[in-house]
UniProtKB/TrEMBL annotation:
<feature type="domain" description="Sulfatase N-terminal">
    <location>
        <begin position="34"/>
        <end position="355"/>
    </location>
</feature>
<dbReference type="InterPro" id="IPR017850">
    <property type="entry name" value="Alkaline_phosphatase_core_sf"/>
</dbReference>
<keyword id="KW-0378">Hydrolase</keyword>
<protein>
    <submittedName>
        <fullName>Sulfatase</fullName>
    </submittedName>
</protein>
<keyword id="KW-0106">Calcium</keyword>
<dbReference type="InterPro" id="IPR050738">
    <property type="entry name" value="Sulfatase"/>
</dbReference>
<keyword id="KW-0479">Metal-binding</keyword>
<dbReference type="InterPro" id="IPR024607">
    <property type="entry name" value="Sulfatase_CS"/>
</dbReference>
<dbReference type="InterPro" id="IPR000917">
    <property type="entry name" value="Sulfatase_N"/>
</dbReference>
<feature type="signal peptide">
    <location>
        <begin position="1"/>
        <end position="22"/>
    </location>
</feature>
<keyword id="KW-0732">Signal</keyword>
<comment type="similarity">
    <text>Belongs to the sulfatase family.</text>
</comment>
<dbReference type="Pfam" id="PF00884">
    <property type="entry name" value="Sulfatase"/>
</dbReference>
<feature type="region of interest" description="Disordered">
    <location>
        <begin position="472"/>
        <end position="491"/>
    </location>
</feature>
<dbReference type="Pfam" id="PF14707">
    <property type="entry name" value="Sulfatase_C"/>
</dbReference>
């Protein structure tokens, strides 16, 4: 009996050992494929988080994210408006390379071409479970919604939260002469199916909570396998509103209430990661799609002194707050001053996950060397500012920015709006100018006469991009652009 007993113990030991070894192997394999969470705020300005000199409200959770991670000071959205910016983030391409521009209306005929690789479809190929929560805005109708672009699941809005048949006062629009009248009802989608409609400001105020609950649920359900979560909150895009738990609680106005709730949401995401023991294997990226919509005054954010805002190729429109956090991997409390962009996320994540890059050309570069503070790292030296359908309006190299002649808009001519109502815009002719962003981040002093050699160098870079991506301002057709999808099969 004794030998049999010992044999049984040995068998049990080997079984347990094999199970533990298998689990260790699984964990080690998972360690080679980090979870990835991208949080893309809507219309949050460079100066909105407290750790970027925001206030008078407090954002302790975002502050903590920065204190435990890396805060970027020269991070740019792909373009200064919703659809184009989101295209750039998900594909690693300047959006005009893919025929994407502007902010799509619900009836827009174009959509992101499903043949383009996204971060989600790329990661699915190497075993990731993928989910999206929040604002999509890359196609107004099914099947041009997230679950057809590599996402296993989706809960959110198909486009911006102001694209609804409701007036600035929060009441249903009955005046057929107003632009809001023609918007369809605003659906909250699960996959391709509406599950409710956003009809009131109170409904808008529930979105942050709905998104946060779903994001945390996604993390909990996928903690034992590599996952990619793309969280794209609707706030702080107008119309802003907060849930009862935060409404009026800041004492500093509605925008401050909304920022407090956004900050709470970030805290919930990070708490869930830590409670599930996966914070050390999760890269979290926090940034925004473009700068603040300044015409809305006290319902809009701020740029921390950068010039202009959303809808312009000045730095107030494209330079964004960005924090990257990865416990034990990205050094805590660090600051990165190097030039980088949302288009760099795809190739960086591909490298970290061991995923192949898209077969078609992209514009992003791998910025791991910045995250891990490799000596003398500088993976991105150039960045170009496109706006409109395909207007090349600026070029940056290092801290030099050449603004090219174009027609733009300015918020400075009119007083901003108040309490949810917009002010006005004015058109302006923007002349060529050279700015030294190291000493003049507000783009106020044209120094081209003092640095003609820099102007020449940047003009040559501009010409290179014109040949590749095209430029409507010089009537140049790009040789390396691709077609979007056309929903009704006609251009």
């Amino acid at each position: 009996m004794k030998p049999i007993f010992l044999n049984s113990l040995l068998a049990m030991f080997l079984l347990v050992s094999n199970v533990n070894y298998g689990q260790r192997a699984k964990n080690e394999a998972a360690g080679k494929q980090p979870n990835v969470i991208i949080i893309l705020m809507d219309d949050m300005g460079y100066g909105d988080p407290e750790c970027y000199n925001g206030g008078p409200y407090h954002t302790p959770q975002i502050n903590k994210l920065a204190a435990e991670g890396m805060r970027f000071t020269n991070f740019y959205a792909a373009q200064a408006t919703c659809t184009a910016s989101r295209c750039g983030l998900l594909t690693g391409c300047y959006p005009n390379r893919l025929g994407i521009s502007g902010a799509f209306m619900p009836w827009e005929n174009r959509a992101l071409n499903p043949e383009e690789e996204t971060i989600a479809s790329m990661l699915k190929k190497v075993g990731y479970h993928t989910g999206m929560v929040g604002k999509w805005h890359l196609g107004g109708k099914a099947p041009y919604w997230p679950i057809h672009y590599g996402f296993d699941e989706f809960l959110g809005l198909p486009y911006s939260n102001d694209m609804w048949p409701v007036g600035y006062n929060g009441k249903p629009m009955t005046d057929s002469t107003k632009p809001q009248f023609k918007y369809p009802p605003l659906p909250l989608l699960e996959g391709d199916s509406p599950i409710k409609y956003i009809q009131t400001l109170e409904d808008q105020g529930e979105l942050t909570g709905i998104y946060t609950k779903r994001a945390c649920k996604f993390i909990k359900e996928n903690k034992n396998r590599p996952f990619f979560l793309y969280l794209a909150p609707s706030m702080v895009h107008v119309p802003i509103y907060a849930s009862p738990a935060f409404l009026g609680k800041s004492g500093k106005g509605l925008f401050a209430d909304v920022m407090m709730e956004v900050d709470w949401s970030i805290g919930e995401i990070m708490r869930t990661l830590k409670e599930r023991g996966i914070d050390q294997n999760t890269l979290v990226v926090f940034t925004s799609d473009n700068g603040p919509w300044l015409t809305f005054g006290n319902h809009a954010g701020n740029t921390a002194g950068l010039r202009e805002g959303k809808g312009t190729s000045w730095d107030g429109g494209q330079k964004e707050p960005c924090i990257m956090h990865w416990t034990g991997k990205i050094p805590s409390g660090t600051v990165c001053n190097n030039l980088s962009s949302t288009i760099d996320l795809l190739p960086t994540i591909a490298k970290l996950a061991g995923a192949p890059l898209p077969k078609n050309k992209i514009d992003g570069v791998d910025i791991q060397s910045l995250l891990f503070q490799q000596p003398d790292a500088n993976p991105r030296e150039e960045f170009v500012y496109y706006y409109g359908r395909n207007n090349l309006e600026g070029v940056r190299k290092g801290y030099w920015k050449l603004v090219l002649p174009h027609k733009g808009q300015t918020y400075k001519t009119y007083m901003p709006g108040k309490d949810g109502f917009p002010g006005g815009y004015a058109d302006m002719n923007v002349p060529e100018a050279l700015y030294d962003l190291a000493h003049d981040p507000g783009e106020t002093h044209d120094v081209q006469n003092a640095h003609p050699e820099i102007v020449k160098e940047l003009e040559e870079i501009a010409e290179k991009y014109r040949k590749s991506l095209g430029d409507d301002l010089t009537k140049t057709t790009g040789s390396e652009v691709r077609e979007p999808a056309y929903i009704n099969k006609t251009k």
